[in-house]
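Thread: Newbie trying to understand structure tokens

Hi all, I'm a second-year student working on a class project, and my supervisor (Dr. K.) asked me to get a predicted structure for one chain before our next meeting. I've only ever worked with sequences, so writing a 3D structure as a token string is new to me. If someone could post the tokens and maybe explain what I'm looking at, I'd be very grateful. Here's the chain:
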Amino acid sequence: MTTRAGLDVGGAHLKVAMSENGKLTAVQQFRCRLWMGLEKLDFALQKAATLIGGADQVSITMTGELSDVFPNRKTGVETLVARLDREFGPKARYWIGPRGIGSSADARAHPRDVGSTNFLATAALAARAHADALVIDFGSTTTDIIPVRGGKAVPLGLTDAVRQTTGELVYTGFTRTAVMGVTTRAPFQGQWVTFAREYLSTMADVRRILGVDLAAFDQHATADGQDKSAASSTVRLARMLGRDADEGTLTDWQTVAAYIREEQLRSIHDGALQVLSRANLAAMAPVIAAGIGAADVAVMAARLGRPVVPFADLAGAPPELAAWATACAPAVALALMDG
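---
Reply by user tm_fold:
Sure, no problem. This is what the structure looks like when written as tokens:
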């Protein structure tokens, strides 16, 4: 029996997937506030140790090198590889983007291909099941949009700098993005109100006001350090409009939240159209929905006139793991890949 772990080491979360003989057996996310120091990664690895401990191989991808705890991305990759090598020794293998899975030495030799290419792992698994597809991974912080054509991932860009020009990386997330980073105004009681450009509220607040249950996925503190109830979320969002929550009805605040959500979805939809405008995919090539925002990806698939396939389905995840398998797509992909 071969037991493989897939790790996605991010700047906010450590995502872990486990497989036995090619079948997914566990998926879990751990908070990892890497921007606060490497000890946060140490703590997350300690929390995950029981889950990972029996693995014969640990396949690792990362975006944590982007954290501002590092002076640059190359140093981030080198530091994380060194730390993970100490943790896992010879079991550690690394996702090196277009080069596939390689050794620690390979990772150190090609840091640009190691950092922030986790999206290619997701797309590689999708390409096994669908010759043509559009992968949309709507995560807590960013959204990846990757075309698959002829059984291969065919993005124009491999780095964030390029992907932010091609529509393939839309820097907006399901929960962690500040409202001020999504739009500058919203309709309120018949008027357009411009927002305070302060970190007062996040998209997690927006979604809680709209009735989305984020209890399992939202692992980070709120903008004001208060609780994550819908009522407290409304207080935070109201501050963006220079108001107190009791100055509007529930319907008023849900209207504001719905507008903000729509502005965010529109930005992702624009990215998808930009990618589709050059990708030459089959007319009914599906959208592969991944990330904690997969339900919203399904909405965009309908707008695009394409069928939607949850990432968990193509990963063969059992029902009890489906939500987390879709949410942690790169880790799941690595847990299911040989290399």
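A couple of things are worth pointing out once you decode it. The first helix runs from residue 38 to 52. The chain has a mean pLDDT of 97. Feel free to ask follow-ups in this thread.
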